[in-house]
Amino acid sequence: MRLPLLALLAKGPAHGYELKQALEKLLGAAYPQPNVGQIYVTLGRLEKAGLIEGEDVAQSSRPNKRIYQLTAAGREAVEAWFDEPADEPRVRDEFFMKLALAPHSGAADQIALINKQRRHYLNTMRDLSKLAASEDRDNRVAQLLIEGAMLHLQADLDWLERCQEELE
């Protein structure tokens, strides 16, 4: 949550609830909705780390709100984040660990594990398809997020088929 919040603040100052709304609007319903409490805790940590600075702004009929903006160090952190490629493909996969350990433990059948995981992926894909149909078509970022998740699921399903072929 740290770096996405810094990236949003790169555009200009904002308070915590504005940042929450910006994330929700940008990413749509497919992305887990950020908890406003988590956002404020993260903002406090970013401020302590010197990546942002906050200023209390008085409001007439409400409590003061705190507006945050990036510091030079915060801007450098955002630029470094965008400059780095994302994580490598996942090698530490919990399902694969279960699959590998099943015959050694005697606690599970590998083919049954594959079938259960396949059902889970297919159900998730169905849910994402429904979400894509209900999501605002003009929100290309949310549509791309859903499409990416579905493509990852399809690759995972293909990989499960490969595992089953090898293990049968």
Task: Tell me what the structure shows.
The chain is 65% helix and 7% strand. It contains 7 helices and 2 strands, in the order αααββαααα. The protein has a two-stranded antiparallel sheet with strand order 1-2. The longest helix is centred in the C-terminal third of the chain and has 28 residues, at 140-167.
Global structural class: mainly alpha
Helix proportion: 55-70%
Structural shape = elongated
Number of helices: 7
Task: Count the beta strands.
Answer: 2
Identify low-pLDDT runs: none
Strand content: 5-15%
Residue-averaged pLDDT? 91
Strand order across the largest sheet: 1-2
First-last Cα distance: 42 Å
Topology as a string of helices (H) and strands (E): HHHEEHHHH
What are its keywords?
2 strands; 168 residues; elongated
Quick structural overview:
With 168 residues, this protein is mainly alpha-helical.
SSE layout and pairings?
Elements: H1 2-9, H2 16-27, H3 36-48, E1 52-57, E2 65-70, H4 72-83, H5 94-105, H6 110-134, H7 140-167
Antiparallel strand pairs: 1-2
Helix pairs in contact: 1-4, 2-3, 5-6, 6-7
